[in-house]
Predict the 3D structure of the following.
Amino acid sequence: MADNKLWGGRFAAKTAQSVEDYTESVSYDQNLYREDISGSQAHATMLAEQGVLTAEEAETLVKGLDQVLEEIESGKFEWKKEMEDLHMNIESRLTEIVGPVGGKLHTGRSRNDQVATDFRLHVLRSLEAWKTALEKLIASFTAKADQNREVLLPGYTHLQPAQPVSLAHHMLAYAWMFKRDHSRVVDCINRANVCPLGAAALAGTTYPLKPETSAKHLGMTETFRNSLDAVSDRDFVMEAMFTGSLVMTHLSRICEELIIWANPCFGFIKLPDEFSTGSSIMPQKKNPDVCELMRGKTGRVFGDLISLLTTCKGLPLAYNRDMQEDKEPFFDCDKTVHASVVIMADMMDAMGFNPENMEAALKKGFLNATELADYLVGKGIPFREAHHITGSAVAKAEAESRGLEDMSLEELQTFSDKIEEDVFEVLSYEAAVKRRVSPGSTGPESVDAQISELQGWLAS
Ligand code: ARG
């Protein structure tokens, strides 16, 4: 053996240093040490239950692996690059601890089913953390909705003022997006929860292994049906990264809105000090850097997803070393998505709103113009004509920097003699929102129902 590699048997010359550096994964896959150790313990226990190992051998292996775990967690473990990946680092240290029986751990197993198991367990753990963080995020948005049922602001289309909506309704729109993200995370968890142990290198093995037992020991709900698929499948990673990409897309949209709302031209929000930064040269500045970075980091999460999709698209069955490139994009995606969700929830909790500025924007944007047109239709005027009459009234009010509601009845009647005293009820923004009675609308009944439904879901 030219080298001390676990696979060194058929090699005469040592691996080149550059190749060792190029191919190693231990510098980042050591992240998976907990999953690797529990996977090995489950495998050893199953081997004993199937009579492939003796009970004492399995016990020695399990205890030795506990010691390895302890060494890693206390920082005593020495990770060696020449051992290539975490699997071989751990197995070789185990063999130092327990002696030759360590060599029996890999019976009926390959690094191909081993790494697939480790990574599934790892992705599952991350998805559970995303799920919890999303619940907190949905709770933050629902709480803001609950506290701001009466606050009105312009709803926009084309980023032009369109119709008044309640701030509660706006916050709830995001709560529903994040709730769908949450259900996608749950779907990902269900599909990732399959144990590949027992698929071995690609074709299964000649030992009488029992995949159900390994899965049970790992708390995994399903076993694989096809060994080639079990070692080749990385859809669970790509699916998780797609779900993370959608979470980031939703976060990026609220970030964009918060950036706009923080601009003094809008002045709709008071960015909490803890979530903004200043400028080193312009003393007046308070910058929405957290929102900008979150919007920016959305791009890198998309990149993580696209990189693995591209890596996998041309791979023949079964395992190919290309697949080692699945880990770093996921780690990056996981770190970014989780931190972004947590920070958005905290930022929302601390967010202050300026209802006066929102109201001023309603006036400036003539957000009651549709109401006036609908009012005229109610008085028997065809919609097209009502639209035209309202347009003329808006033009006059705009020229005088007033709102429609600031005109006197006599002034309004110069546009149509169908206008009567009751028009002022219609021109009130509060009334416009209150009159929205359709299900899912911004009207108070719908908003109450949305808040109750989300609160009920969060409580269960
Ligand atoms: N480091 C490898 C990976 O992450 C582990 C599996 C290696 N398997 C092999 N046959 N070389 O994919």
User: Anything to note?
Assistant: The mean pLDDT is 96. Residues 25, 29, 85, 111-112, 115, 319, 321, 323-324 surround arginine (CB under 6 Å). The first strand starts at residue 152 and ends at 157.
